[in-house]
Amino acid sequence: MEQFDSLFKIEDIFALWLSTVGLERETMRITEDGDLATTPHPKALGNRSFHPYIQTDFAESQLEFITPPYESSETLINWLSGIHQVAYQVMESDNEYFWPLSTPAYVPEDRDSIKVAQLDNEVERGYRTHLAAYYGKDVQLISGIHYNFQINPEVLKRKQPESMDRVSFMNAIYSKLGRNYLRYRWILTYLMGASPYIADNYATELYGKPHKRMMRSFRQSRYGYQNKADVYVRYDSLEHFIEDLEQAVASGQLSVEKELYRDVRFRRGNPYRELLQKGVSYLEFRNIDLNPFATYGIEQGDIDFIKLFIITLLYLPDVETNEAVDKGNTYNFQTAEADPTDLPIDMDEIRQFLGKMKTLATTLDRNRPQKASLINLIESKEAMIDRPDLTLAGRIIEACPSPSDFLAFGIDLAKDYRELYQDKPYLLHGFEQLELSTQDVLKEALIAGIEFDVVDTTGNLIRLEHDDHVEFVKSANMTSHDTLISYYLMEDKVVTKKLLADVGVRVPAGVSFKNPDEAKAYFPQIEYSAFVIKPKDTNFGLGITIFTERPSQSAYDEALKLAFAEDDTVLVEEFVQGTELRFYVQDGSTRAVVERQPAQVVGDGKHSISELIDIENTNPLRGERHLAPLTYIEKGSAERLQLSEQNLDFDSIPAEGEIVYLRRNSNISTGGVSIDRTDAAHSSYHRIAEHSAEALGANFCGVDIILTDYSQEARFDNYAVIEANFNPMITLHRHPGRGQAHRVGRDVLKQLFPEVAFSTEGHFIG
Amino acid sequence: MEQFDSLFKIEDIFALWLSTVGLERETMRITEDGDLATTPHPKALGNRSFHPYIQTDFAESQLEFITPPYESSETLINWLSGIHQVAYQVMESDNEYFWPLSTPAYVPEDRDSIKVAQLDNEVERGYRTHLAAYYGKDVQLISGIHYNFQINPEVLKRKQPESMDRVSFMNAIYSKLGRNYLRYRWILTYLMGASPYIADNYATELYGKPHKRMMRSFRQSRYGYQNKADVYVRYDSLEHFIEDLEQAVASGQLSVEKELYRDVRFRRGNPYRELLQKGVSYLEFRNIDLNPFATYGIEQGDIDFIKLFIITLLYLPDVETNEAVDKGNTYNFQTAEADPTDLPIDMDEIRQFLGKMKTLATTLDRNRPQKASLINLIESKEAMIDRPDLTLAGRIIEACPSPSDFLAFGIDLAKDYRELYQDKPYLLHGFEQLELSTQDVLKEALIAGIEFDVVDTTGNLIRLEHDDHVEFVKSANMTSHDTLISYYLMEDKVVTKKLLADVGVRVPAGVSFKNPDEAKAYFPQIEYSAFVIKPKDTNFGLGITIFTERPSQSAYDEALKLAFAEDDTVLVEEFVQGTELRFYVQDGSTRAVVERQPAQVVGDGKHSISELIDIENTNPLRGERHLAPLTYIEKGSAERLQLSEQNLDFDSIPAEGEIVYLRRNSNISTGGVSIDRTDAAHSSYHRIAEHSAEALGANFCGVDIILTDYSQEARFDNYAVIEANFNPMITLHRHPGRGQAHRVGRDVLKQLFPEVAFSTEGHFIG
């Protein structure tokens, strides 16, 4: 296959760098003591067999986190961080941690307590039982990273020789890449092998107890996932590989094809023979140890490093022969079983390889001025060549010099990471650039196993997919279930009122004027004593005057002047007094109701208002404006003014139970608080909100109702609908300041994907 | 019923003025010679029996135009003008006019040639045949205005005495109003009677040939619509009225209840007895003659005048008795049969009545500073009290002193009006404040008999209704058939491209940058030789640079600088050369295709470019920007520059057939021209446009495709979709500068109202 040795030119590196990577990270769920967790797989995730992101591997307590493929390592880390967070939020017990290393520090003496994953599929359960008997259960406690790599298809399209068909070309390229990887992967093992310790009582059926207490990587040694030595498959061609594999299964050396444990898997053929028709689609590299110093098991830089390592293999000559592959396997075993302090087995080879990588990195770096330098990354690896203490295994034994401290070392890290995973539970970690509400919908999708992608971050536009059903969602609840026209009906407040009045919903009476003279002349005709004068479109309340009793003509004229200064259309509208409630309607039913109240503190007879604000600001729901469900209460001039109107200042000490308001307006963004009133509001208002949404043809609708008393049934004169919003905030209901939370983000998904079985079991904190 | 005599206070006039009026205007279709038109009712209107706006009355050639009820006389006139225009545009023959007077100037000697309306309903046809036999066909040639009046229901709600139920109150109020109207309507007849002549050979079965050749109003005389004298109904109560009417039918004096010809009809009961349960809903006043000096049969001022006349009747004491009604009838006959030069029959009564009206008008005027003065209107009528020559009948005989000129007088007016009706056929007269495209949809609705209302003029938001099916439409094709999310998918051009590329539609390759350094560094990676650098959102082409061959890095950097000055996101995009075509897709199929070309003239070897522009600007499709399908070509600096680039100026005389472009851009708003390419464009592009719309989930979609040659099948490299628009202009296709027009506005309605049988017959010019 030397025909490919000069297939890629240096300038192809840009396109090759756009190749995609998908990661799988395994981890054991453990208790505080290091015991395997005995709780079941989180029930909130529904049926694990179909979950795209969170599955179990061998053992019931072994989680497998799966990212979709992306070009960017930053995106992959974001996904890992989101999945880790969610996995924690749906955990069945409070006392659980993710073991951060590839090898177990503790194996229960009673091996029967290691439960095989409770999968629905009987064949899969049977297979796992066979593995446990044949290889031993201990080896199944080992976790790692699987690194899936697909060469940018655009490059392959361009490089395909005329003499070859697509499938032959793909298979030839990918089998070259597989061979070269097997030949040189020992370099990765040297640099990133990270399982120098293992539980004392660990043993495998094939190789017994380890012959050493410490090595660079137990996981990649003979004590990791290994078939019997007599299983041999050739890698010099895909045809040979498949032939040998089929022979091994036919002879009973392997129970099924996937029982072949090798560090390279050709993907998208089952059985493998299909690859000869379909072509290899991507490779799965299975030899990466978990990095205990990385919050999510792998550092972003290492994702890039491995990617460039793989791309470099494409530029290198094809090693071609089985002998070369065998040599690579031997090198890798030796490297894995060496002491973490040993130097690399072949200093020249590693130095030359990193040198080749640097050539590519130099070119790439030139065109990514804003990104972390790849050259620096490789140089940091180069430094490890004669400094084994800088390698991952070296760093672990430095941090934890004695095998007997291994358990404590891992648990300490696990506890640190758990704190990170549990930080700001209302966010979806890794997706913080999106609005809170979109993060919430994505988190619900992640839990429900609906695949998603962010199409446009600043636009909060996401794509959701389940099987072949695709839905787009903008800003959490703008979907295919609302019509374009309903948007315009709600956007224009005058139109909204007209349509609601038409169906008998009470709205504040009012008239709009484009002409100041006409508006003035209208004064004698005003029939309501309390009314408001406002510009048609208003921001921040500018130009609004409220009259609670009938004003003089001159006061009225003055108010008109203020309003006309803001807009060319001015409304004279009945002023309805009362409490304003937001009704969140979806698909014809009111899902949640909140009252918004101004920023406030409750006195305790001891603390000053200033201190009470500080205390309230420690509420974990509070944060910077728009970045948290509630906003920090400020001590600014607006608050000072509001206090002084009550003859108070920041040093006043309110009596116990006394509520002190710090703002006149109830916006969440100025410290206001939302209070759930879903059950408290009389059902007649629920019906009015639903009726309003229907009149506007709205599927998602936030109906604002002013009412005298939400516990009393609606009559004609005790309420008015003042607004209907086409993109109602879901955070108000998802994370109310007080009262019951409602998973309205999940409701969005339920309507979009009625075919998905949303779990009704388990729980979810976040 | 004197209990109501002081029911209304002076301040109630504002609310009473919000009462609604609906108009019906009848007219005979005639030929240039004054003959009755022999063509059928316009087939394009579909089944007339259900048409809300354009029907036939008695004769096949008698049109009846019906407006919906509105508060404002301006709106009513607008509706009349739209209906008149449309009725002309669907006429079956070019040689037809609307006879502008109430009485015919010509009655065919062969009465059989007066065809009864060819209605589907057999009973209705039979009824008309009976009328023709009983009253004679001549009387059926008489036309007029019916004035429907509903008291503002809000006022009635407020005024309803506690002692009365709603139905009794409505019936009491409306029967008082009916009585009073009958008592005083002679005043209207004096002022506005307008049928002083009638055809020589005109005769009725009941009263024979008129005894005079000229009177104030033949239509309201005994020679108009009159029952036999022995038909007598009491008006002193609704119960009496119904009793007498039923008796007249039972005794055979009348064939059916509606054969009772009286100037007041109680509406919304059939049979009338239903009114006793349901309550009168409004009154129909049937005594208004057509005003031949008014383009649409009635002046806007007279709509207001009659309204105030009616409201005044509500303020006046109830005349109560049948004797008073009889007196009113007598007065009215006498007024109608008087000479047009005679003074009013009761000078005091008319003076007092108008005086009372002035009191109300004074109050109203104070609060309508922007509207025409009602006081002036009444004063102009007051002037007629001792100047019969100023009344309508007086003016007619002044303009046409001899009965023998009556036919010519009417035809001259009819011709003038036809010219007005035919002006700017692409508009919907009376609705010119809306966008052209919305006018077109409304016009199609008017033709199809779908009821409509303008909800918001500046927003181009309309409401359509057929039976109980309601649809809202904004800007002609934003409807309930598009989803809110598809709007956002099309709004973001980057997202659009992404989604189209995903489904295999070719879009210009490209990358977007937020960072100038990254954009600069990208230069070596650009793989296409021709490309464009542009701000993500651009207006008027600012910041765009097109490279048709590979530039230097410094030229590239300079172009980036220009683009980043306009937007914080800049696209580097493949530049696809070719012709740009707009594909208008609806509901999965391409309905029309146009090419837009820059403003241009074609030489004739004689005229200068300046003269050719003048000639082109006489094209009736051209007008002011956005107010006509095409825009006047200017002779400004942009045009001068474009000419000078071709070494031409405005005085150059291009050779015959030579096309001279006056602009670089092809926007219609700068004189560009749209050319229909629906059939010319290869069907493969139709499919690509449809596929693109589908990928975006768009029902209405304007897909812009750049292509090398529209007659050649699409391959991967000869086209690119550059944009998809969620609100594609329909005027481009409806009124292309050249080629086939497509009624895409009608297609909108067809999809919204699949249950409506759109006529496939007849034709439509406009």
TrEMBL record, chains A, B:
One Gene Ontology term, aspect cellular component: cytosol
GO molecular function: ATP binding; glutamate-cysteine ligase activity; glutathione synthase activity; metal ion binding
Enzyme Commission no: 6.3.2.2, 6.3.2.3
Cofactor: Mg(2+); Mn(2+)
Alphabetical list of SUPFAM superfamilies matching this protein: Glutamine synthetase/guanido kinase, Glutathione synthetase ATP-binding domain-like
Pfam family name, one: ATP-grasp_6
Reactions that this protein is recorded to catalyse: gamma-L-glutamyl-L-cysteine + glycine + ATP = glutathione + ADP + phosphate + H(+); L-cysteine + L-glutamate + ATP = gamma-L-glutamyl-L-cysteine + ADP + phosphate + H(+)
Region (Glutamate--cysteine ligase): 1-336
Pathway participation: Sulfur metabolism; glutathione biosynthesis; glutathione from L-cysteine and L-glutamate: step 1/2; Sulfur metabolism; glutathione biosynthesis; glutathione from L-cysteine and L-glutamate: step 2/2
Enzyme class: ligase
Signal peptide start-end: none
Keyword presence, Plastid: no
Keywords associated with the record: ATP-binding, Glutathione biosynthesis, Ligase, Magnesium, Manganese, Metal-binding, Multifunctional enzyme, Nucleotide-binding
InterPro entries: ATP-grasp, Gln_synth/guanido_kin_cat_dom, Glu_cys_ligase, Glut_biosynth, Glut_cys_ligase, GshAB_ATP-grasp, PRibGlycinamid_synth_ATP-grasp
Domain spans labelled ATP-grasp: 497-757
PANTHER family: GLUTAMATE--CYSTEINE LIGASE (PTHR38761)
Protein family according to the UniProt entry: In the N-terminal section; belongs to the glutamate--cysteine ligase type 1 family. Type 2 subfamily.
Function comment: Synthesizes glutathione from L-glutamate and L-cysteine via gamma-L-glutamyl-L-cysteine.
Subunit record text: Monomer.
Name the record gives this protein: Glutathione biosynthesis bifunctional protein GshAB
